[in-house]
Specification:
Number of helices: 0
Strand content: over 45%
Strand order of the largest sheet: 3-5-7-11-12-9
Number of strands: 13
Largest sheet: 6 strands, mixed
Helix content: under 10%
Shape: globular
């Protein structure tokens, strides 16, 4: 039919859910899978990627809406990797994706900085 589908769902109809967070800390939860997590605060924000809730291929998107810089970290069991160990969103409105590449191993890619 000329319509691109993923798991039988036309991509043009797929929507990303949004989870708005306004605190200075947030730990991802299972229901954040395939969602955009917006992080908005004037103070620095720490986003923790926990172990044992995501599987290889799972993804979450994050955006810094406020002036408080977002830092992404593992929980001590999970590991978050990024080019040049850049684990902070660069500035307000920066966006990045967190992709689970293996059990408790994640890749942060997007508008990030050291």
């Amino acid at each position: 039919t000329g319509v691109v589908q993923a798991n039988g769902i036309p991509l043009a109809l797929a929507r990303v859910g949004v989870n708005n967070q306004t605190g200075t800390t947030y730990t991802l939860i299972a229901s954040d899978l395939n969602k955009l997590i917006t992080l908005s605060n004037a103070s620095p924000i720490t986003l923790t990627v926990p172990s044992a809730i995501f599987s290889a291929g799972d993804q979450v998107y994050i955006t810094q809406l406020g002036s408080g810089q977002v830092t992404v970290q593992g929980d001590g069991t999970s590991t978050v990797n990024s080019a040049d160990s850049a684990l902070k969103l660069r500035t307000q409105y920066s966006t990045a994706g967190i992709l689970c590449t293996a059990s408790n191993t994640f890749l942060l890619a997007g508008d990030v900085t050291v």
